[in-house]
Amino acid sequence: MKQMLQKEFERVYGVSEEIQFFFAPGRVNLIGEHTDYNGGHVFPCALTIGTYAAVKRREDQKLRFYSMNFSQLGIIESSIDKLLNIKEDDWANYPKGVLKTLIDEGFSVTSGFDVVYCGNIPNSSGLSSSASIEVLTAYFVSKIFDFSSKSLDMITTAKLCQKAENEFIGVNCGIMDQFAIAMGKKDHAIFLDTFDLSYEYAPIRLNDAKIVIACSNKKRGLGDSKYNERRSECEAALKKLKTVRNITSLGELTIEEFETVKDVIQDEVKCRRAKHAVYENQRTIQAVEALKKNDIKQFGKLMNESHQSLRDDYEVTGIELDTLVETAWNQSGVIGSRMTGAGFGGCTVSIVKSDCVEEFIKQVGIVYKEKIGYEANFYVVEVGGGPCNL
Ligand code: GLA
């Protein structure tokens, strides 16, 4: 990868001996969906696939961005003093947003740079290609400008990248993706309480099973999806619940407490949205307990229930994801299967017995193509670490 990136960097910007190379992973969320902006728990892990960058500092203020995944857009130019709120730069808005946020927070970015990005996460698939490029950018900027790791530790990095996405890109996302990527640990998932950002690493011991991701190839951009709408529906439900309970987030309610007070929400749709947030949070806590006890079967059952709740109560699945998941449930060797990420398209995650993976991919692929009309792509993934220098 390094050689390939170097070649591409030199083709695009000219020969140089001062190129540095970096990597940040993508992530998959195993359970705990749409809980991270409701003060609930999530359980994502970083992947060994992700985004790579070849970077060289410049003497002047100029910024040049190039992505091998969007080569048709060529070099996108900007400059440190022109970052402001200019948002017309397509994918480069992600690194620009991160730079702007870092500068606004007082980090000293003293010159521009040239960068080539290359990602092997499918774009807009729900595996966080955008959070990956954000965290990667913050990480390499901290290295090439020598910020102390104290001032920009990995949790601060995650928070600032979330801020960039909220304020610059306009997606009101929670902290899960940036946290999972910045704090990734090989062969571990992160049990994160988004209420106070306390977290614990849990080893992913799947015995003789694998994590299989199915990408629906239904593209979506979070900005134009109903993501922000779901978030405000939860906020509206919380506002009603606050009139009878002293809480600051839906994640503070147990299932019993929610059932006792839910009628105060009045609106049927908002009540279902809040129900998902409360139940999904509890499911996530139970799933991690099950995994700790090596009870993979129970973990899989909770994954399936998570999908049902996202389909029926939260309504963020759609025919593509439902076809992938419901077909997966009927295959032998499947321990659990659910949509992952924001939904509305993107990917599913399944835990499948190793010796059934091949047949699983074949059968689910056939049914999907027949019903949806185009193909799904499958990836057997490994759990990887956080950002690093290459
Ligand atoms: C997207 C957001 C996350 C999270 C998930 C849903 O990935 O970026 O913050 O809300 O959707 O769980």
Key features of this structure:
globular; binds alpha-D-galactopyranose; about 400 residues; four-stranded antiparallel β-sheet; alpha+beta
Question: Any overview of this molecule?
Answer:
By secondary structure, the chain is of the alpha+beta class. 39% of the residues lie in helices and 22% in strands. It has helices at residues 2-13, 93-104, 129-144, 154-169, 176-182, 227-241, 255-261, 268-292, 296-312, 319-329, 357-372, and strands at 20-31, 41-57, 62-67, 76-79, 113-119, 188-193, 198-203, 209-215, 334-340, 347-353, 377-381, 388-389. The strands form two sheets. Strands 1, 2, 3, 4, 5, 6, 7 and 12 form an eight-stranded mixed beta sheet that branches. Strands 9-10-8-11 form a four-stranded antiparallel beta sheet. Helix 2 crosses helix 3, helix 3 crosses helix 5 and helix 8 (268-292) runs antiparallel to helix 9 (296-312). The longest helix has 25 residues, at 268-292. The protein is globular, with a radius of gyration of 21 Å. The structure holds alpha-D-galactopyranose (GLA). The site of alpha-D-galactopyranose has 10 residues, from helix 5.
Rg calc: 21 Å
Strand content: 15-25%
Strand count, sense and closure of the main sheet?
A: 8 strands, mixed
Please count the beta strands (DSSP E, at least 2 residues each): 12
Mean pLDDT: 94
Unreliable stretches covering 5 or more consecutive residues: none
- Secondary-structure element order, as H and E? HEEEEHEHHHEEEHHHHHEEHEE
Structural class: alpha+beta
- Termini, distance in Å? 9 Å
Please give the share of residues in helix: 25-40%
Tell me the number of helical segments per DSSP (H or I, 4 or more residues long).
11
